[in-house]
Design a protein that fits this description.
With 151 residues, the protein is of the alpha+beta class. The protein has a single domain (2-150), classed as 6-pyruvoyl tetrahydropterin synthase/QueD (Tetrahydropterin Synthase, Chain A). The chain is 29% helix and 26% strand. The chain has four helices and five strands. It has helices at 23-30, 63-78, 97-108, 143-150; strands spanning 2-14, 39-51, 81-82, 116-123, 129-132. It has a five-stranded mixed beta sheet with strand order 3-1-2-4-5. Strand 4 and strand 5 (129-132) form a beta hairpin. The longest helix is centred in the middle third of the chain and has 16 residues, at 63-78. The model has no long low-confidence stretch (mean pLDDT 94). It binds nickel (II) ion. Nickel (II) ion (NI) binds at residues 14, 33, 39, 41.
């Protein structure tokens, strides 16, 4: 088995808060990340596909094709956006790196047509990153946040 990885970068703003918490609890839990007007990150996303090389091409998946899937399904939606307000597939989701990793997986998994999506690593900063391998995770959506986002 071989593991092929494509790296991509994007920049986005977000605010971490839970609309069902009090202001004080949001402060305690999310601290600086709860800043009402948000803050930004330069994210790095690594997408790994596993499989055997195609006998005709030698590729597990054509990396140009993988790059295009990442671009069309993720980057075009999130790059230079505010993740709390601008991204339809993140409506009502607290945009932690954990939740972004799950949401991104769901966006691209059905479109990987060479090999199988194996892992997704999302760096929120140089020292903080999340790995996700597709185990079932419920992406909780908060109705109040959806209302605020669409107001
Ligand atoms: Ni942040």
């Amino acid at each position: 088995m071989l593991y092929v990885t494509r790296r991509a970068t994007f920049s986005a703003a977000h605010r971490l808060y839970n609309p069902t918490f009090s202001d004080q609890r949001n402060e305690e839990v999310f601290d600086k990340c709860n800043n009402p007007r948000g803050h930004g990150h330069n994210y790095t996303l690594e997408v790994t596909v596993r499989g055997l090389p195609d006998p005709a091409t030698g590729y597990v998946i054509d990396l140009k094709r993988l790059a295009r899937i990442i671009d069309e399904r993720i980057l075009s939606e999130v790059d230079h956006r505010h993740l709390n307000y601008d991204v339809e597939f993140l409506r009502g989701v607290i945009p932690t790196a954990e939740n972004l990793a799950v949401a991104f997986w769901q966006r691209i998994a059905p479109h990987i047509d060479g090999g199988q999506l194996h892992a997704l690593r999302l760096y929120e900063s140089e020292n903080n990153f999340v790995d996700y391998r597709g185990e079932p995770v419920e992406l909780v959506r908060h109705a109040a946040a959806e209302q605020e986002a669409s107001a």
